């Protein structure tokens, strides 16, 4: 098990939900933190709390991860402060829910920017210095949605499939150079993410009938960081599901997923 005390982790989307929970777990292990998000007040409150509770150094950086070259920009700020990032946690995520044709294109473009482009950009920015040191960890937060198509969250699931494939590829490329890259794949989590999907009816779907708490996901994140494999799925049931869909016909998987994700029927209409 790799000792983390005294190392520095950068966590995106750290102001709430999974990102905040991971930051708290890391601080409890004695890890200094660079907290990145758009909400200065929330980040400042978290930084003050973690510094007081765990005597770790916390740096707050404001960034909009839907903007181009956001990773390079943050990296420049980190270098200017003389900080070295040992652990990169690409956690920030964005989601949309509903029939594809009902979702504003600009929202889906932002979803792609945050979930895909920012992950690649941050990896590009921080990986070279890890390679020079011969050590480093990159934790990319994916989802169990990465393992199958998810109708009504088509872009989100596709973006997480990218994160999963990207992480596994980097793991294979750099594992013998002291770099550990891993995709964390949780199932539905009860965070503000659900509230921001744009349609509260998602809570009534079968897929969101049972949710994890951010603290549970953060505990799995620590296992992923300490582990050696390229993928960490939260829970045996989710692991079994991820394996089973590999052997089922893709059309069957898509139809079953649609049944679980279809918006609730309204105004007496029927579905088929």
Description:
- With 272 residues, this protein is of the alpha/beta class.
- It has one domain (8-261): NAD(P)-binding Rossmann-like Domain (Rossmann fold).
- The protein is 46% helix and 13% strand.
- The protein is built from nine helices and seven strands.
- Strands 3-2-1-4-5-6-7 form a seven-stranded parallel sheet, with helices on both faces.
- Strand 4, helix 4 and strand 5 (136-141) form a beta-alpha-beta unit.
- Helix 1 (17-28) runs parallel beside helix 2 (40-54).
- The longest helix is centred in the middle third of the chain and has 29 residues, at 105-133.
- The N and C termini lie far apart (51 Å).
- Mean pLDDT is 90; it is low at 266-272.
Q: Count the beta strands.
A: 7
**In angstroms, what is the radius of gyration?**
19 Å
Q: Helix content range of the residues, please? A: 40-55%
The whole-number mean of residue pLDDT values reads 90
CATH fold description: Rossmann fold
Instruction: Estimate what percentage of residues fall within beta strands.
Output: 5-15%
CATH architecture, by name, is: 3-Layer(aba) Sandwich
Instruction: For the record, give the distance between the C-alpha atoms at the N and C termini, rounded to a whole number.
Output: 51 Å
CATH class: Alpha Beta
The CATH homologous superfamily is named NAD(P)-binding Rossmann-like Domain
Q: Would you identify the regions where 5 or more consecutive residues have pLDDT less than 50?
A: 266-272
What's the arrangement of strands in the largest beta sheet? 3-2-1-4-5-6-7
Major beta-sheet overview: 7 strands, parallel
Number of helices: 9
Number of domains: 1
Structural class, from helix and strand content?
A: alpha/beta
**Quaternary structure classification:** single chain
């Amino acid at each position: 098990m790799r000792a983390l005390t005294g190392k520095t982790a950068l966590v995106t989307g750290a102001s709430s939900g999974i990102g905040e929970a991971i930051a708290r777990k890391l601080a409890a292990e004695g890890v200094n933190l660079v907290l990145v998000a758009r909400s200065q007040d929330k980040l400042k409150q978290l930084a003050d709390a973690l510094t007081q509770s765990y005597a770790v150094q916390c740096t707050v950086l404001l960034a909009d991860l839907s903007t181009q070259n956001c990773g390079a920009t943050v990296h420049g700020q980190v270098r200017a402060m003389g900080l070295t990032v040992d652990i990169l946690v690409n956690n920030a995520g964005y989601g949309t829910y509903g029939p594809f044709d009902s979702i504003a294109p600009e929202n889906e473009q932002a979803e792609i920017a945050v979930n895909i482009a920012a992950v690649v950009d941050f990896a590009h920015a921080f990986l070279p210095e890890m390679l020079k040191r011969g050590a480093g960890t990159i934790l990319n937060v994916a989802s169990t949605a990465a393992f199958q198509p998810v109708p009504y969250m088509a872009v989100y699931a596709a973006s997480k499939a990218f994160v999963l494939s990207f992480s596994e590829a980097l793991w294979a490329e750099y594992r013998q150079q002291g770099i550990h890259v891993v995709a964390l794949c949780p199932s539905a989590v009860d965070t503000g993410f659900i509230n921001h999907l744009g349609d509260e009816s998602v809570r009534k779907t079968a897929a969101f009938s049972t949710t994890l708490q951010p603290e549970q996901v953060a505990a799995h994140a620590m296992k992923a960081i300490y582990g050696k494999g390229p993928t960490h799925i939260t829970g045996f049931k989710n692991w079994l599901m991820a394996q089973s869909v590999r052997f089922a016909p893709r059309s069957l998987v898509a139809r079953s997923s649609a049944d679980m994700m279809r918006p609730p029927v309204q105004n007496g209409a029927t579905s088929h």
